[in-house]
Amino acid sequence: MQLEYWLGLGSIAFFVLFVLVVSSLYIFMFDDPNTSDLPIDPDNFANPKLLQFISITIAPGGILAAVAFILSKYYGSKKIGALLIIDGLVLLGGMAFCQTLIDDIAEPYITDTVLILPPLFMGLSIPIFFFGIRLMKVRKPRPKKEYF
């Protein structure tokens, strides 16, 4: 298999991991920190964790998706385009799910980062769709005929 295919599969894995860790963090924040057994400072909990999850999961996944696109943009590939579209679907669906969880989060955990993260990444899934569709529409160049 080609390198681009494996990079596309790796980007899907990172995108799924990002959706899973962000949704699990949002579900963890349902409990009020004042009644919890764990000593958690809500002011210094959500923002650093979300930034850590972004740097560990979605940044490498985006880089892998971009490299897969760059490697296959000249000859086009329906497989790689489909993988990029799956990346966009995973990100859009997962962040839509996280957006529904915001209403249940305890009040001390609500910060600007918690509120803006799902819509931001839902918006970032649109360029991923665009590049996936663009990659699927690229036609392979015909070989030039040598007449002489």
From TrEMBL:
<keyword id="KW-0472">Membrane</keyword>
<feature type="transmembrane region" description="Helical">
    <location>
        <begin position="7"/>
        <end position="30"/>
    </location>
</feature>
<feature type="transmembrane region" description="Helical">
    <location>
        <begin position="83"/>
        <end position="102"/>
    </location>
</feature>
<feature type="transmembrane region" description="Helical">
    <location>
        <begin position="50"/>
        <end position="71"/>
    </location>
</feature>
<keyword id="KW-1133">Transmembrane helix</keyword>
<protein>
    <submittedName>
        <fullName>Uncharacterized protein</fullName>
    </submittedName>
</protein>
<feature type="transmembrane region" description="Helical">
    <location>
        <begin position="114"/>
        <end position="135"/>
    </location>
</feature>
<keyword id="KW-0812">Transmembrane</keyword>
